Amino acid sequence: MQKNGILDIFCGPGGLSLGFALAGFDVVHSIDINAEALSTIRLNHAKIHEAKGEDNYYCAEERDLRTVKAEEILENFEGKNFRVQGIIGGPPCRGFSSANTKTRNPENPHNSLYKDYIRLVNDLQPDFFMFENVVGLLSMGKGEIIRDIEDKLGEELGYVMDKAILDASDYGVPQTRKRVIIIGIKPDRLKPEYDGKVRFPEKTIDKAVTVQEALFDLPAAESGCMQDVYEYPEIEHLSSYARQMRKTPLLNIASPRVLNHSTTKSNDVVLERYKHISQGENWESIPDHLLKDYKDKNRCHSGIYRRLKEDEPSPTINNVRKSMFIHPRQNRGLSVREAARLQSFPDWYEFKGVRDSQYQQVADAVPPLMAKALAEQIRRMLI
Fold it and tell me: What GO biological process term is on the record, naming one (predicted)?
């Protein structure tokens, strides 16, 4: 008998895959066009299979999804004695993001990739699908894109489906990050007690995880330090979140050291700017004489030079090197590991590629703890 397997498309570094693996799903095949993100996801899936003491059947393929045929995917799954139970993923979101003021329009080629998601759902007929994207998807093309998705997957293909805006901070992620989630399940695979309706996961925590709980057990680091691997400092009382990041009992994996903890080097002017910014403040707190190279300060985004508040969740994590998020207490930008902690990637999850690519991979990922909550809810609904 064939086993159930998951296809992860537009997989990035693997936040969705990790969440579904934590919920007990088998992720068999991932597809993305980013070679460095694929190096990350391959390495960490190998760690998962090694910890489980099983052969590594996982495949991460570097392909433009527009060239991928359903027959190729089926051949890969069936060759490993799997069937496609579910398809997960979200097309690149920069074309939909409200932060994108230059190419946020239907003509952006990235904005048509959702059609290939629909094509594969149509051709592979999985029991379920899960689609993730930025909130801007809902207003793109005056709502035409979301209507097209709902018409094709719901009305034409017959999936029981619904959409919701969920915040990652409700699922144990120390970050305010709102995303559109669409879940669809075949009517004959949805348990009768759900009355023909898809439901989304309830909050998994009562109180949001703060930046302090997420980061303060990590070793101090100097700006521009190239040291990438650190020993854990001795901490008398670890937060429950820090313990969760250091060890993943569900997969029987722990990190013996802190990985990806090098920081970006800042010049003397930038370091001086940091000194004028208190927690929760941004570039507006910097004196004018230190901003002479900014020709038009009115065009500065509110997230630039944002110093994190330790007693709150982080704002939405983007490429923190480019936006220059500042550590709450240290005058430096965040390390890749700190950004990954704020996205809920465990410490053993290692990012590959050049450092700027690592920052971008973290920024583009779905937080694994949010993905896990979604996967567990899908599992509850499936027959």
Answer: methylation
Any bridge partners for residue 230, and if so which? 258
Reported residue count of the chain is 383
The amino acid that residue 235 corresponds to is I
Q: Which residues contact 120 (CB under 8 A, 6 or more apart)?
A: 7, 9, 65, 68, 70, 73, 87
For residue 75, the tally of other CB atoms under 10 A from its CB is: 11
User: Radius of gyration of the chain from Cα atoms?
Assistant: 21
Which residue carries 């944002």 as its tokens?
A: 306
Active site residues: 93
Q: Which sign does the torsion angle of CA 55, 61, 66, 67 carry? A: negative
Please state which CATH number belongs to domain 3-204+367-381: 3.40.50.150
Tokens encoding 288: 């004018």
pLDDT of residue 104: 46
Tell whether the model's pLDDT for residue 85 goes beyond 60.
yes
What's the pLDDT score for residue 93?
60
Angle, nearest 10°, between helix axes 70-79 and 114-124?
50
Kind and range of the H or E element at 44? helix 35-52
- pLDDT per position as a tens digit, 181-205: 999 999 999 999 999 999 999 999 9
Q: Where are the domains of the chain?
A: 3-204+367-381
